[in-house]
Amino acid sequence: MILDNFVKMAVTAAADKNAEEIVILDVREVCSFTSTLVICQGRSGRQVQTITTAIRDTLRENGCRPHHVEGERRGEWVLMDYLDFVIHIFMEDRRKFYALEHLWGDAPRLAWTPPRPKARDGSGIAGAGTGS
User: Nearest 5 degrees, angle CA 69-CA 13-CA 128?
Assistant: First the structure.
């Protein structure tokens, strides 16, 4: 399965806000309500909310709005339903408790490589400073 552009945008937005343990599952063969699950976590409720906002804003700017969002106020487990894909953003303890990766264990994991960090010196290459 080739990753949907909206899924790539969502995962990149999450990574930009330091989401941890990002997993993408192709659930087409084992699930009737969506094609792709994205699961990630934040270290605090505030970070979970920040990741949620970044994903929502990025996708909205590109014409994609969620069908439904749950749990944003508490920030322990946010579910963002975009119909073709569903995003779960957890606090670490909630993620371990619900263990969605194990629940959907038969689903293949999709490869995703985070973008390289942007250079701080404007060169386009991370760590390519002048050294002086």
Answer: 170
